[in-house]
Structure to design on (563 residues):
């Protein structure tokens, strides 16, 4: 397996708070890696560093052999890294399908000035992606009319429409009801497997991590304190204390 | 009938009626419509920017730049050809906005609004004080333009200017429509909602804002040249902040829902101002203020929202 994403000695502080220190993480092509940790342990900071939203004080980020540490988020996105957010980042005033069409335009023809955004061929692809996520019935609704769960899926669909090599998801089941979370994750896992997208996802829910990831990284106060198979990692008393607050 | 064909028929039908108007209307109405059409182009630029939540209080900067580019060409190079003067206006607006946009497109909200205002007042100061070049408050006269080599007589000049403005407005409104429905036009609306996501699909927010800013500058530049030709005289007041405020006023009056809204808003504004001045010469600004209040409270989408409501009812 070749490394798709590799961080070397990644370090970032916010004042006195250690958000990331000496993070050496390697994610291989085809993996689905879960990240767990208590609030403030540095999970989202890791995603923000990997996608260029934050710059590290020390260390390097390497994507498929290329150093991307100094690049802007949009350049990293163009190199095949897409992300979704804990709070969905969508265009609230546009329709669901328009949110996807803008990803397709950015990926394919570029953001042109003449040919219209709404075209038969791009509509067909957008609808195919929406159908995969079960969002097709909402295609013509504006995003601010959508329920939270559908927004969460759309946020991921907007990222998947870019056909990334690596997808970073920040709490894909946050805001989704307990009874719906496995359905949402089943949908996501099927789409990501089908599209062969390497995935890293931050998650609070241990059931979700156990069921959907084959490898889990445990963050605590900006450090990776464990890295391995979920069953083994979650059986460790130190990890349970750090993540759950009890053994 | 498909909606696209219906819209095209309505557009060309309206254009035909407007082209025939000089034979039906008196001279002063024609003049008012010419001025409204010219200013509508500057307002169109303001509306495009507003779609990206970019409010400018200094758009008269490019309006005056266009007018003075045409004026200087008349004064110093003795150019009278309307097509050349309009092209110069467009170029002046585009080039100046391309230069200042490098800085201004990085700012948002109140900083964007006030940076534009500041630059427009700098130009106002230059136009006012460099008397030897700009003529100061005396301004520059732009008399007797030719159209493709033909010099219309005094009687037909007004009609020629009206028809030229109309054709230009129709063309530029169409181009603005194409821009609005293109991916770039939609990205602009996306920027209004969420700049972070735009960057995270790999699109440069700055590039789209800059592009729109230059388009808006070019539109204001050609509007300024048209005004110079229509009125026959330009003064530094074209760059004054109240002129920029007027563009924003008309943009709110017309609404941002369509590229035709600035045209409707601009015509309405010229007539309201004209009648307000005629009915109460000392309090006409108050009348405009009341109109703006009524629009904000009762028609926040501008007068164009009335047409949208009517279209929705018709569709039902």
């Amino acid at each position: 397996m070749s490394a798709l994403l590799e961080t070397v000695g990644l370090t970032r502080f916010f004042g006195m708070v250690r958000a990331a220190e000496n993070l050496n993480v390697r994610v291989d092509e085809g993996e689905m890696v879960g990240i767990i940790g208590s609030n403030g342990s540095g999970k989202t900071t890791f995603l923000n560093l990997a996608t260029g939203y934050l710059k590290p004080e020390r260390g390097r980020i390497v994507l498929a052999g290329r150093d991307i540490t100094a690049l802007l988020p949009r350049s990293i996105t163009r190199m095949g890294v897409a992300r979704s957010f804990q709070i969905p980042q969508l265009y609230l005033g546009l329709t669901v399908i328009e949110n996807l069409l803008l990803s397709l335009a950015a990926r394919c023809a570029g953001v042109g000035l003449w040919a219209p955004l709404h075209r038969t061929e791009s509509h067909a692809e957008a609808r195919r992606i929406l159908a995969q996520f079960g969002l097709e019935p909402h295609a013509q609704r504006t995003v601010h009319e959508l329920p939270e769960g559908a927004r969460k899926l759309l946020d991921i669909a907007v990222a998947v429409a870019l056909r990334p090599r690596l997808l970073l998801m920040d709490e894909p089941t946050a805001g989704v009801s307990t009874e719906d979370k496995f359905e949402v994750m089943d949908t996501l896992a099927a789409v990501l497997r089908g599209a062969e997208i390497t995935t890293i996802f931050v998650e609070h829910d241990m059931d979700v991590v156990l069921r959907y990831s084959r490898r889990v990284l445990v963050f605590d106060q900006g450090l990776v304190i464990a890295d391995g198979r979920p069953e083994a990692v979650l059986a460790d008393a130190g990890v349970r204390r750090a993540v759950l607050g009890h053994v | 009938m498909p909606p696209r064909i219906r819209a095209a028929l309505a557009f060309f039908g309206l254009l035909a009626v407007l082209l025939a108007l000089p034979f039906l209307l008196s001279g002063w109405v024609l003049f008012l419509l010419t001025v409204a059409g010219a200013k509508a182009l500057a307002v169109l630029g303001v509306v495009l920017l507003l779609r990206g939540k970019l409010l400018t209080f200094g758009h008269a900067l490019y309006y005056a730049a266009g007018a003075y580019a045409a004026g200087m060409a008349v004064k110093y190079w003795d150019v009278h050809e309307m097509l050349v003067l309009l092209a110069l206006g467009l170029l002046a607006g585009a080039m100046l906005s391309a230069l200042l946009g490098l800085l201004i497109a990085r700012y948002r909200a109140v900083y964007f609004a006030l940076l534009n205002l500041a630059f427009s007042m700098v130009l106002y100061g230059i136009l006012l004080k460099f008397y030897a070049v700009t003529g100061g408050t005396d301004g520059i006269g732009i008399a007797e333009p030719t159209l493709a080599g033909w010099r219309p007589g005094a009687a037909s000049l007004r009609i020629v200017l009206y028809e030229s403005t109309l054709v230009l407005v129709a063309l530029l409104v169409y181009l603005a429509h194409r821009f609005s429905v293109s991916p770039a036009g939609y990205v602009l609306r996306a920027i209004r909602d969420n700049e972070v996501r735009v960057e995270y699909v790999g699109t440069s927010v700055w590039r789209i804002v800059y592009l729109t800013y230059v388009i808006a500058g070019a539109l204001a530049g050609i509007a300024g040249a048209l005004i110079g030709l229509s009125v026959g005289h330009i003064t530094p007041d074209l760059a004054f902040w109240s002129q920029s405020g007027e563009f924003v006023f008309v943009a709110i009056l017309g609404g941002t829902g369509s590229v035709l809204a600035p045209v409707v808003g601009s015509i309405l504004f010229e007539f309201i101002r004209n009648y307000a001045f005629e009915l109460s010469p000392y309090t006409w600004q108050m009348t405009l203020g009341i109109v703006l209040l009524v629009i904000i409270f009762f028609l926040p989408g501008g007068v164009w929202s009335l047409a949208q409501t009517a279209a929705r009812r018709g569709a039902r």
User: Anything to note?
Assistant: The longest strand of chain B covers residues 140-141. The interface with chain A takes residues 178-179, 181-187, 189-190, 192-194, 196-204, 207-208, 211 of chain B (CB under 8 Å).
